[in-house]
Fold:
Amino acid sequence: MSTRRSTIKPWVVEMTMTAILAALIILMTFTPIGYIPIGPVKMTLLTLPVAIGSIVLGERSGLILGSVFGLTSFYTCLGMDALGVALMGINPFLTFIMCFVPRVLCGYLPAVIYKAISKNGTKRTMLAIPVAGASVAIINTVLFLCSMWLFFGKNLSDLVGVAIDNIFVLFALFAGTNGLIEIAVNIVVGTAICKPLTIAKKRLV
Structure:
């Protein structure tokens, strides 16, 4: 008599894991590890759960987690982040776009990158995980700072207290150490988490 291994519907696994990662993003937002002050800006580790969801679960979960990340980022501008509060005073709508859109894209695009690299075999999958993980932090940093410069470039020098004459100074000031740490965390920790989760997901579904 043959036995059939029971499986869980893929959408149940996807939505359950997405909900857990979204809750983690919200929890981290209100703890010191969510936004870590370094100089005039805050380094964020919220790209890590976004990376995990985007790589392991795909584009849909990446969009959801990126949206949660973007909303929590905007929430910090209501009183938790001094620079964000100042930008809200200048233009709340543009501040929302700056906080939200880059985070949505940093959830969605890495899933596309992961699938594009990993579709040709297991060896490529091992490469795809760290590359996609790093891309979350890179996309977030580049799009966020470009939006900041586009929307608020003329105000930044006065707000920060440092002369920011062009976008390259902005990147050097805001993304130097912060961006490198975020990329490293996503590569090392993200890869360590994504590999077993990817295997576990395949077994469940």
User: Anything to note?
Assistant: The beta strands are 35-38, 41-44. The chain has a mean pLDDT of 87.
